[in-house]
Amino acid sequence: MSDEDSTESYTLLCDDPSHEVVLVDCGPREMDVILAVRKVTGQSLWHSRVLARQAPVTLLGGLSACRAQSAVAVLQSAGARAEWRQEPEPGEHAAPSP
């Protein structure tokens, strides 16, 4: 390789970073929220109940913004307090929730 040869490197950026869906609080309509958790996660009824009772808990990860918003809408329509957020980059620590 001569001095005139050069190597170029590129960093690829993803247009749509991964998002996660967090169930913050189950709310007063627990059974409706359990059924909504089951709908968005595909888990069994028993597992969905366990997840709902562990709130705050991350239900889904690696989603597009659109899919995360849709899942949050289903949970909120059942009476839950839920949010979607961008997943932290590998090696990046998530800030503690207040």
Automatic annotation (TrEMBL):
One of its GO terms (cellular component) is ribosome. The keyword Ribonucleoprotein applies. Residues 79-98 are annotated as: Disordered. Residues 82-92 have a biased composition (Basic and acidic residues). Residues 20-83 form the Large ribosomal subunit protein bL12 C-terminal domain. Keywords: Ribonucleoprotein, Ribosomal protein. It comes from the Bacteria. Pfam families: Ribosomal_L12. This is Ribosomal protein L7/L12. It comes from Streptomyces musisoli.
